[in-house]
Amino acid sequence: MAQIIDGKAVSAAVKDEVAAEAARLREERGLKIGLAVVIVGNDQASRVYVNNKKKACEAVGFQSYEYAMDEDTTQEQLLDLVNVLNRDDRVNGILVQLPLPGHIDEKAIINAISPEKDVDAFHPENVGRIMIGEYSFLPCTPAGVMRLIASTGVDITGKQCVVIGRSNIVGKPMAMLLLQKNGTVTICHSRTQNLKELCLTADILVVAIGRAKFIDGSYIKEGAVVIDVGMDRDENGKLCGDVDFESAEKKAGYITPVPGGVGPMTIAMLMQNTLTAAKQQAGIE
Ligand code: NAP
After folding, report:
1. 180 in active site
2. Which residue has its alpha carbon closest to ligand 1 atom 34?
3. pLDDT at 257
4. What pTM was computed for the model?
5. Are strands 232-233 and 225-228 parallel, antiparallel or unpaired?
6. What CATH code would you report for 140-263?
7. Ligand 1 centroid, distance to 195 Cα (angstroms)
8. Superfamily of 30-114 according to CATH
9. Catalytic residue among 120, 203, 242, 244
10. pLDDT digits 0-9 by tens, 203-223
11. Is residue 130 a contact partner of residue 154, using CB atoms and an 8 Å limit?
């Protein structure tokens, strides 16, 4: 039976570290840290994410500034707000909650965020920095996965790592981070021919597909570290991952549950990125 990787406990530890460092900087340097969160429209899931981000800011001692804009906000109005926030010294990090309404070009908005305040690490400059290993921020979900793998004590060096999914926000950066830690990385996607065969070679398997319980125990090598990024709904509408936990935990050495695995890490890493941004803007190492 696999050991469960407790994402709630690891994320709480990350937030405690961030809160302690933020308190120290406030006392010793008078540094106040602020995150601006921009939401456009009335998407319920986005609303929940934004509220969770605000709560996390309070918990670590950051100021959060929320900008809730109407569904019919124009691209120009949103760009104007981003430009104001880029110049606002109280704001160390800017997060524009995605997805945006269809009439707004997400790329144009992401590209307008100052790379120094891009705490989601979606700006092309930050993406490029990840490629060459000279980054300040990592995208929050892959960064959270790396912390979860580290919490198992398993050394990535020389391990066969398989990432399923090649999205810009999860799969691709995930593969780069495993490569930087000296894993031998294979990236799989919807056109991969021999998915099960490849998965069975994986000492570390990261699954980011977006299909409920798609990967069952028959895809998993005995003793593997299995990280389930998926956030899906099962046939009863219950939250579940891309991995069929019940059969997978019989084969894996370590496994993340859904909920309570990767999910809580994403916000914790956002707090970490905001702290990093504030320190860099203040010229603190
Ligand atoms: P995405 O952009 O839809 O990408 C899904 C990837 O899975 C694509 O690369 C796709 O291949 C691949 N794929 C689809 N069907 C496949 C199949 N049958 N076999 C192999 N690969 C297949 O999704 P995403 O944004 O990366 O998110 C993935 C999952 O993670 C979702 O469930 C999402 O909700 C979740 N997520 C969770 C968090 C968190 O905080 N926990 C954060 C972000 C995302 P192609 O490229 O060939 O289409």
Report:
1. no
2. 231
3. 98
4. 0.97
5. unpaired
6. 3.40.50.720
7. 15
8. Leucine Dehydrogenase, chain A, domain 1 (3.40.50.10860)
9. 120
10. 999 999 999 999 999 999 999
11. no
